[in-house]
Amino acid sequence: MSSRLEQAFRFAAVGHQGQFRRGSGVPYVEHVVAVAWILDRAGFDEDVVIAGLLHDLVEDTSATLPDVEQRFGRVVAELVAHCSEVKTDDQGRKRPWIDRKSDHLAALREAPAGARAIVLADKLHNLISIDIDLREGRPVWNEFHAGRDEVLWYYHAIIAICVGDSADSRLQQVAARCREALEEIETLKR
To answer: How many Å apart are CA 185 and CA 187, to the nearest integer?
Structure first.
């Protein structure tokens, strides 16, 4: 544990203060800590782990990429940028779910391995959370801006794009766990 990593934990915790995971009421910071933990356990370096902690900060809080770069450097800011969707159009209106997801999928094709690892770790934790919520009887699919089939399509697509033809065993490991979690969810009743 370095002081830089502790600063990232604090920045994420304060930034996500008052935010909660869909449906479960769990404080949102639990998600970004889980993503960082997955990345660390898979063997990624500190910049990737820190970017994992901060991956939703620019999308979901008032923090900006320049804020991230000033505190944690260019590499972390670039990784976070690759993980962030463009949620609004030029007029500030929320973009349709399918447009946001399609554009993000296309951008990830050219993203560095560290960014793709963060996205896979994010999806893995989301899938684990969905599985738990479904098993606990929560109406998970009502929480999304798309139907169950579209959401499952997106997870399959993002896993395929993020692992691609990479020989990186760390990416392969996280992708394999994503596929297992996705398969579990697909076997559960709607």
So the answer is: 5
Domains along the chain?
3-187 (1.10.3210.10)
**Active-site position among 6, 45, 59, 103:** 59
Instruction: Express each pLDDT in 66-125 by its tens digit.
Output: 999 999 999 999 999 999 888 889 998 999 999 999 999 999 999 999 999 999 999 999
Cα gap 120→48, rounded to integer Å: 12
Task: Name which of 41, 43, 37, 121 is nearest 79 in CA terms.
Answer: 121
3-state secondary structure (DSSP) of residue 88: strand
110 tagged catalytic: no
| DSSP characters over 15-44 | HTTT-B-TTT--BTHHHHHHHHHHHHHHT-
Q: What is the pTM of this model?
A: 0.94
Which runs of consecutive H residues, i.e. helices, occur in 84-112?
97-108
* Residue in 30, 40, 47, 60 annotated catalytic: 60
